[in-house]
Design brief:
Blueprint (H helix, E strand, L loop, with lengths): L1 E8 L5 H11 L4 E8 L5 E8 L5 H7 L5 E9 L4 H9 L1
Antiparallel strand pairs: 1-3, 1-4, 2-3
Amino acid sequence: MRYRLELKLKPAEGALIRVLGMIERRGFPPHAVHATHDSEGYWALAIVIDSTRAPETLRQQLLKIYDVEELSFSAVQELSRDRRHQDRAA
């Protein structure tokens, strides 16, 4: 199952590394990462992870990181292999 994590991080040195390191060390391999600065200077981070486990444990761990201001997650609908192939052919 894939999950999308959306985080708001303080603009602190090393904040991205701390978050990405925590995700990887906890056994949630990242599939996609997108980061931008918002108008207040915070990092807006969206990460898609693959996992057979529910992300609740990861959420609790990430909220312990000082730089994490906000965090939400949602399940991502995966396209089947046949559907992806059809979409590319179109």
